[in-house]
Design a protein that fits this description.
This is Hemerythrin-like domain-containing protein. The chain is mainly α and 173 residues long. 83% of the residues lie in helices and 0% in strands.
Amino acid sequence: MVVDLGLPQDQAQMPRCQQILTRLKDEHGALKKELDHVQDMTSQMVSRLGSEDSKRLLQDIRKQMEMFMKQLDAHEHWEEEEVLPLLADYANQGMEPTFLTSTWVLEEDHKQAERFVRSFLEYADSCKGADSLKLKKAISLLSVACSVLSEHLAAEEEMFFPVANQMLSEIKR
């Protein structure tokens, strides 16, 4: 499953900041949906553990996680270029004095998530023709990576969405 993280056509007429904030919410929804898909594939793999099918599923999941990380990296780059400056300017008008400090914490969370995903990807590479024990370890690494990624997205939403919602409500006035 590959999710297009671009701006929907019907939003082309919205004011620029509204487009950015709408895209932020849409992309987070798409990224969470992609993580759910990976977790569903992992459940299928667990139910087939020990079979040749489970080894194939592991490699399919590995490819999905590589694609997910490319999407997440593109999303993070876009957030740094478009979203953070917009929200920081607004937050610095008195709404949230620790906004920039919080963005640093989120950046560190992102780095941690990347490390967990890289660990899974490297381990999955070593599991070609592997036994059930190695496959279980790969599943464990993936589970931790997905958990950290989910927490990272949730933390971003807790920080960004209230500021974004306040901005949108002021735009609509």
